[in-house]
Design brief:
Blueprint lengths: L1 H6 L7 H10 L20 E3 L5 E10 L6 E9 L5 E7 L4 H14 L7 E4 L8 H10 L2 E4 L9 H11 L11 H17 L11 H6 L2 H18 L17 E3 L19
Parallel strand pairs: 2-5, 5-6
Antiparallel strand pairs: 1-7, 2-3, 3-4
Helix pairs in contact: 3-4
Amino acid sequence: MYTILLDRGVYLCSEASMYRLLRERGQSGDRRAQATHPAKKKPELMADGPDQVWSWDITKLKGPARSIWYLLYVIIDIYSRKVIHWEAWPTENGTLAKEFIEHAIEANEGTAPQAVHADRGTSMTSNTVAGLYSRLGIDQSHSRPHVSNDNPYSEANFKTLKYCPAFPGKFGSIEDVNVFCRDFFWYYNNEHRHSGIAMHTPASVHDGSWVAIEARRAATLDAAYRTHPERFHRRPRPRQMPAHAWINQPPATIQTTSTPQTAQVA
């Protein structure tokens, strides 16, 4: 319009001023229909026992040379923190993902979870996996795009794996991955005392034996207190097992009660 008027010998204002006036009236933008991408819903999942919510993800492990990677599939119970199943493959696709989940259920003595959470990788969102969930009556949940905090249990598990002092950094073959992961995940499930589950092992929380272990801890602390009460500021108690495990706990459900403190040794 500016140049049309200028060609007619008319000058009303500068070209910049004309565009500013058009913008103020909403007349300078693209008039075509624009694609909209509604915000993805934040996943909110809660488990107060094993086999209610599983989380799974895939991480890359360096191979013997540049551009060679091995893909480690790991599925974890968010309440017990137990690694239910893991597999290493040179690739990722929906068929492998479906079979991986089936193998995880078999490894869990045939018990399927109520829900499975994962990110939005192509294998996680594939129709093959969705069909398996539908057939087994499993609810599926997915992280929002580019929000790693929506899958905290899997992310934390991978960090523990890669920060393990014995982690080699890179692997000579996929057989080497299997050897390392077999030892690591056995240790993680059966020996590793996890801070998120009151310093119990994931295996003991998953099978319920943590209750007897906690009772023995309490008896040991009581005996120590009775023998030398002067050594403690307060009566010692073992750490308490959390009642729930959440993915994105809603603010309205967060209790403000303080966590019991562990007694200090003088």
